[in-house]
Design goal:
The complex is a heterodimer.
Chain A (H helix, E strand, L loop, with lengths): L2 H16 L28 E4 L2 E4 L4 E3 L11 E7 L6 E4 L2 E3 L5 E10 L5 E2 L14 E12 L2 E9 L6 E3 L4 E9 L3 E9 L5 H5 L15 H4 L2 E4 L2 E4 H7 L3 E2 L21 H13 L55 H7 L17 H12 L7
Parallel strand pairs in A: 5-16, 8-12
Antiparallel strand pairs in A: 1-2, 3-4, 4-7, 5-6, 7-8, 7-9, 9-10, 10-11, 12-13, 14-15
Helix pairs in contact in A: 5-7
Chain B lengths: L2 H8 L34 H11 L5 E3 L3 E4 L4 E3 L5 E3 L6 E4 L8 E5 L4 E9 L4 E19 L11 E14 L2 E3 L4 E6 L2 E6 L2 E3 L3 E6 L2 E6 L2 E3 L3 E6 L9 E6 L2 E3 L20 E6 L2 E6 L2 E3 L4 E6 L20 E6 L2 E3 L8 H11 L8 E3 L12 E4 L5 E3 L35
Parallel strand pairs in B: 1-4, 2-5, 3-6, 4-7, 5-7, 6-8, 7-8, 8-9, 8-10, 9-11, 9-12, 10-13, 11-14, 12-15, 13-16, 14-17, 15-18, 16-19, 17-20, 18-21, 19-22, 20-23, 21-24, 22-25, 23-26, 24-27, 26-28
Classes of the chains: A alpha+beta, B mainly beta.
């Protein structure tokens, strides 16, 4: 830790003390900051720590995604809050949020007795029990007059609050799969500049924006404390969303990547959309590759079918095409998703570990394709 | 500036006058080709550099002092109008060998960016990538894998892509497993006075419009200078001038990864044009390439017969002009068995291939000049790929043609007055 970061932490403690020792145990209403970047996560009032755990504060609402981004098997508690009188607008499946909107995403893992962290499928929990979990970081996106801004808060040892650290952090963790297989890895909390690495989906204007919070990815049920409800409905009823379609069954909905009742094709395309298309879209930073992976892009050469790599370097794995139908092991796409080598792996940032279940899905998808590249 | 940063500055914590550390002499002389010794390198400074990149404001100059600095996480700059300046390409060194995440050492997504007088080393992926930007200068930057050429090295040394108005000058690029200097999908580009050695491709211009490549030195790569077009990209490249370069003895075995475009380049290639149009190669010194001093080819002979027929892609090089180059040596031991057999059959056991090799694929519907040569005694060997190599020929009549000359690239302000 640099001298600077020691100072930041020290100062944060001092500031905390000056504010009466408040942390996440002190209940305070959600609020937005138009310019200031508060030093403690608790200042935002988005989360509250009680005897049962860390949960959305009164006023903030938890949400879940049908298909999330894979982040080294971390679980994510997501919350949204819109200032009094404001509401988001639903437009063709996109959500436009008003000034002052605050989003948080808290990254955590189930924790083994020896401190190792557990690989598990994403869950829709609205409460994190600190006794059973290792809470690492909370990312905040706030809608300011200039646009969205991202901030990174790293949790303290006691798991009572998190401290702003614009430089991010790295954590040596050990992942345990299925109760036995262990893998050491470095969990990277990004620095604030790296937010743009995923959240600036248009490399031309480079503005950052939420990725998961779309109409199609929210169009699902969530186990609220008050009961199970469709998230679009819940936001509309709360007065936070206007313009949403009445018939949500027929509205845009992203398929769940692990939903066994959905088609392999839809699941694979949803997975690629949420894990790749923030860069691999027509205007994204990876448009340089010519590989476009948005769910709605028609499947063909541009989505990888028999497509030549352009500037993949070692990323080709000595293979010729991104997707070879019927042959996942001959497909660069699978090679790069499987890899944990920084020069090879995709996505470039946001993971250190390969997502076996996601890679297995895409392998099955490619294996089921007919045809060839010759 | 956020209130918090302001508070820091007021509190005097924000001493980002990095030059204060510039009291050191920087690294001592390093034996050429020797792995960078990181014992004693500064592993702490990177936190300050990352903070400086985060806090950068338009107009800032981030000055990095002399020294060898260990960087073990990816660096990124997203702020326009910033200059990163070291104390010299051998005195200020950022070594990325220990990176465990991130595909680039330094990733820049910002306009009006200048980087100069710095050495970048040993990233697992690319060393410097500049993605989708306008007005960029890369000057006196050394991009090197200090372990020497290896397939394990990162792909690109200097990697500006989708940059409009770009100057790359007086740089050095060594050891890239793809291209030392790679300019992709860019527009209005000058690449001059650089040195590229021991890469797969020394200097590569790909899907780029209006590039002048001059006064560079490329040697000991697999291929010296490449002018390529690849399918499925938003921009097709055309109009590149390659002139007054010294391109010699690029005979290194190809250590690129199969499946990459450069993996198709035969060892011993001086200048190669692949599927690109309106390219001039003139007034260069090109010598001692065992396959050919110049190759003109299509995507077909890059091993992509099927992909070459991609929709909306023209795989044929057209409007190529080769003139007034000084050729010597070369062609005596081509890298491909078929070419070796052809050499013996046409030119005898001790013969050599001509200076210019054309794969002979052409679009019958195209009416204009394909390959015009005005280069003294230099011959073109057309290996007649179009007809299954049925009738290779060195007949020059088809190449005695004229093309309108390309205008020089004029860099726009602020790169040029």
């Amino acid at each position: 830790m640099s001298v600077m970061r020691v100072l930041i932490v020290f100062w944060a403690v001092l500031v905390g003390a000056c504010q009466g020792g408040e942390d996440l145990r002190t209940q305070s209403a959600p609020r937005s900051f138009a310019e200031e970047d508060p030093l403690l996560l608790s200042a935002w009032g988005m989360l509250h720590l009680t005897d049962s755990g860390v949960a959305p504060n009164a006023g903030a609402v938890a949400y879940g995604l049908e298909t999330p981004l894979f982040s080294d098997y971390a679980q994510k508690l997501r919350t949204v809050w819109i200032p009094e009188g404001g509401s988001a607008h639903y437009s063709e499946g996109r959500l436009e949020f008003p000034l002052g909107t605050v989003l948080t995403k808290t990254f955590y893992y189930g924790e083994a007795l020896d401190g190792a962290v557990l690989a598990s499928a994403p869950v829709d929990a609205a409460v994190i029990d600190p006794a059973a979990n290792r809470i690492i970081e909370t990312r905040v996106l706030v809608r300011r007059s200039e646009g969205w801004e991202g901030l990174i808060y790293l949790w303290n040892e006691e798991e009572t609050d998190a401290v702003l650290d614009r430089t991010g952090g790295r954590f040596d963790l050990t992942l345990v799969r299925d109760g036995e297989e262990r893998q050491a890895f470095v969990y990277a909390a990004p620095n604030v500049t790296q937010c743009a690495g995923c959240h600036a989906t248009d490399a031309g204007d480079r503005r950052i924006a939420p990725l998961g919070l779309s109409g199609r990815n929210l169009n699902r049920h969530f186990p609220y404390l008050e009961g199970d409800a469709n998230q679009i409905d819940a936001l509309s009823v709360a007065g936070w969303l206007t313009g949403a379609p009445a018939e949500l069954e027929e509205a845009a909905r992203l398929v769940g990547w692990s939903d066994a009742t959905a088609s392999l094709d839809d699941r694979a395309r949803a997975y690629l959309d949420m894990n790749c298309a923030h860069c691999h879209n027509e205007r994204g930073p990876a448009d340089t590759s010519g590989l476009i992976l948005e769910a709605e892009a028609p499947f063909g050469r541009a989505t990888g079918l028999c497509k030549l790599p352009v500037a993949a370097g070692a990323g080709t794995g000595n293979l010729r095409f991104d997707i070879v139908p019927g042959q996942p092991a001959q497909s660069i796409l699978i090679y790069r998703l499987h890899s944990e080598d920084p020069a090879v792996m995709m996505p470039e940032i946001g993971r250190a570990i390969s997502h076996r279940e996601g890679t297995a899905l895409l392998s099955a998808w490619i294996a089921a394709m007919e045809g060839s590249c010759s | 500036m956020s209130a918090k940063v302001a508070a820091f500055k007021a509190a005097g914590f924000s001493v980002f006058v990095m030059g204060l550390w510039a009291c050191g002499e920087g690294p001592g002389p390093r034996e050429t080709g020797a792995l960078r010794d990181l014992a004693g390198a500064d592993a702490v400074y990177q936190d300050r550099l990352i903070e400086a990149l985060i806090d950068a404001q338009p107009g800032d100059v981030i000055t990095i002092p002399a020294g060898v600095f260990v960087i073990d996480q990816p660096l990124a700059l997203t702020v326009d109008n910033v200059t990163i300046r070291g104390a010299g390409m051998d005195r200020t060194v950022l070594n990325f060998r220990g990176m465990t995440s991130g595909a680039q050492g330094l990733l820049v997504t910002a306009d009006n960016f200048t980087i100069e007088d710095i050495g970048l080393e040993d990233a697992p992926g690319d060393l410097l990538k500049i993605n989708e930007a306008e007005n960029v200068i890369i000057r006196r930057v050394r991009a090197e894998w200090t372990n020497g050429p290896s397939s394990e090295n990162g792909a690109y040394g200097l990697y500006p892509v989708q940059v409009r108005n770009l100057l790359v000058e007086d740089c050095v690029a060594i050891g890239a497993s793809d291209a030392g200097v790679y300019v992709g999908q860019s527009q209005n580009v000058v690449v001059r006075r650089n040195r590229a050695e021991r890469n797969v491709a020394g200097i590569e211009i790909e899907n780029t419009v209006d590039a002048d490549v001059y006064e560079n030195e490329a040697t000991d790569n697999t291929g010296g200078v490449l002018v390529f077009n690849m399918p499925q990209l938003s921009q097709r490249g055309e109009r590149t001038r390659v002139y007054q370069n010294r391109v010699y003895a690029n005979n290194r075995d190809n250590f690129g990864h199969a499946g990459t475009p450069v993996a198709s380049v035969p060892a011993g290639t001086g200048v190669i044009i692949n599927s690109n149009d309106a390219v001039e190669i003139f007034d260069n010194d090109i010598s001692d390439h065992k396959t050919a001093n110049i190759i003109v080819s299509s995507l077909f002979s890059a091993g992509y017969q099927d992909a070459a027929r991609a929709e909306n892609f023209d795989p044929y090089p057209e409007g190529v002009f080769i003139a007034g180059n000084r050729f010597s040596g070369g062609g005596e031991a081509p890298d491909l068995l078929e070419l070796q057999a052809l050499r013996v059959a046409m030119f005898g056991l001790d013969g050599r291939l001509p200076d210019i090799l054309w794969d002979g694929y052409f679009n019958p519907a195209f009416q204009g000049p394909r390959l015009c040569v005005d280069n003294g005694e230099a011959l073109v060997l057309n290996i007649d790929g179009q007809n299954g190599n049925a009738a290779p020929t060195t007949a020059m009549e088809a190449h005695r043609c004229a093309l309108p000359r390309l205008a020089p690239v004029a860099l726009r302000p602020p790169l040029a007055p």
